[in-house]
Design goal:
Length: 287
């Protein structure tokens, strides 16, 4: 008799996202943008679509080309190359599209305007002053200023990842959590701190830079330990608080059961007012 396997769709645990500051809450006014750190895509990373509304939007025109001398400028690997044409910069009340930052590349997706059912491609999202701005492509044959009329403040929209966008997101978040796990094990088991790391855009591989080369035995040992923790199903959750809150200032430096110290610095490109700490149970605790 042939065996049958049923794959259960992944779900986000109800206690995955934890606001630990008593004064911090999600904005309920639809004309206020949810700050990075509290976005729907960060509260539930498996969420594919939400209904929301436009806060503001404007046309962004590409700068004139600059003459280059010598070597060609190196292209960024985190984000897709932007088209050399006007884009709409759209700020929503909330979003499932993650804006590039903290080492993780941008999501891509779609915004569907409820009034006419039109679908608009989001080619990139970035943080502007702690808020997620969607870079929306203007369809061929439509003037950018005319396209902007679809995104008047208060307009109802559905923002989604789509199949390709979700595949990209799932790869990014899996690799990002894997890097947290790998860096924690390298530091606690082999005293090899992570000097730098890069999570390039899907489907490119990512890398971690350490101070020296590793032997095959060390690689096999770390790989086996990482796999063991994954197969154990170590829980992952996120704690969110206000930056420089009294709780954060009073909290002493902790050590996990792995021996790794807590209290790593925030990413240099982070400008929001909310601090997120990703916790891998008993292994790592990292902003």
């Amino acid at each position: 008799m042939a065996a049958t396997a049923f794959l259960i769709a992944p779900t986000t645990p109800p206690d995955y996202f934890r606001i630990i500051s008593p004064t911090l809450s999600l904005p309920t006014d639809p004309q206020i943008s949810t700050p990075v750190g509290l976005l729907a895509c960060q509260r539930d990373p498996l969420l594919r679509a939400i209904e929301t509304s436009v806060v503001t939007a404007y046309v962004s025109r590409p700068p004139p080309p600059q003459p280059t001398a010598g070597k060609k400028a190196k292209k960024a690997v985190l984000a897709p190359e932007l088209p050399n044409e006007p884009l709409l910069h759209v700020l929503l009340h909330d979003t499932v599209i993650f804006p590039e930052g903290g080492g993780q590349p941008t999501d891509t997706g779609l915004i569907e305007t409820t009034a006419d059912g039109s679908a608009w491609e989001v080619v990139q999202a970035k943080r502007h002053g702690g808020h997620a701005v969607h870079y929306v492509k203007v369809p061929n044959g439509i003037d950018a200023d005319t396209a902007l009329l679809a995104f008047q403040p208060g307009a109802k929209v559905t923002v989604s990842l789509g199949e390709k966008g979700y595949e990209r997101r799932y790869d990014h978040m899996s690799m990002h959590t894997s890097q947290h796990l790998l860096s924690a094990l390298l530091e606690t088991r082999l005293d090899l701190p992570t000097l730098s790391w890069s999570l390039t855009g899907y489907p490119n591989p990512c890398y971690v830079e350490v101070p020296r080369g590793m032997t095959q035995e060390e690689i096999s040992s770390i790989q086996a330990e990482a796999n063991r923790l994954v197969f154990e199903g170590r829980k992952v959750h996120v704690e969110v608080e206000e930056l420089d809150s009294p709780q954060e200032q009073a909290r002493p430096v902790q050590k996990l059961e792995s021996g790794r110290s807590v209290g790593k610095g925030l990413p240099e490109d982070y400008t929001g007012g909310v601090k997120r700490v990703v916790v891998i149970d008993g292994v790592d605790r990292n902003p």
